[in-house]
Sequence to fold (344 residues):
Amino acid sequence: MASLTPVRFSPSAPFFGARAADVESVVCVWLRVTCRLVYAAAVPSPLVFAGSPLDRVSERRKDGAWLAAQLAREESRFLAFWRLNVLVKTEKPQLAWATNALRALADERTGPVLLGIAGEVAHFAVDLSKIDDPVTELGLGGAASFVELRAAAGTLSGGDCAIAAQGRQMLDWHARHRFCAVCGRATSVKDAGYMRECDECDAQHFPRTDPVVIMLVESGERCLLGRQAGWPQPMYSALAGFVEAGESLEEAVRREVKEESGITVSEVRYYASQPWPFPASLMIGCLARATSSEVTVDKSELEDARWFTRDEILTALRAPGTGKVMVPPALAIAHHLIRAWAES
Ligand SMILES: [Zn+2]
Fold:
């Protein structure tokens, strides 16, 4: 029977005099630490849409006088969104910030949202969705355009991607929560955009983030990937699914893998996380070890799921388009999960 006694590292106990069981424990600890370091070293930091350079100054959000002063300051900067597309400069891959004159065109039922400060300069996101033709109304004249964020992420800096992700997710939440979930009456923006309060019953509503587990299931020299019917051939990716109420991350990983592929999983380890503001997810990357091998695909969720060898995955990473499988681009945490396993 395995001992539950923790491994002790005593300076008075020479390693070579240790019992076999102790040596085994030390080796296991070393392997676990080494594996963690391999995976930790492979995590790009931060992943796309994380790593905003702004200080979110959450302690100032309830300070109405400070907030009003920032909204009125000429130095403050405003980032326009139109129907969830973000304003980007045409000549340079940069966010197109504007002055507070932009507020005159914004829909203040869904903002403005304080994104944070840089130095002493406040940065806000504003929603121009009520305008039919923002390019003309703003007189952009080709200097900037509204771009879908996943497309813009390919060229924007990491900091700009993170700022735009925060703005997109927050404005989308406001647009979807203009009415109270308790009584159905209108709600108003409070706390610099971080709360909505019902005008009738005073119920308070807060921005939501939906946790999603995304897991690379491994079994020795193979990993399990799946594909959805709408994806380009031969794209496969890590399995994923929403965490349900009353469920730990480990339980969600095991349930989703079992549901989608019929594979059972034992050990689950955390890898890294990525904000995914389409519309409000947090992708929680995990590595999981399979304890079965026969795949049974849930056709209601996936077109296919199958095992791929390490060599097949390495080919997909090093020479995309030449092998029997393609994996998602580096924008997605799935790419990094797959790479971390393949190169470990
Ligand atoms: Zn209400």
Remarks:
- The chain has eight helices and 15 strands.
- The radius of gyration is 24 Å.
- The longest helix spans residues 20-41.
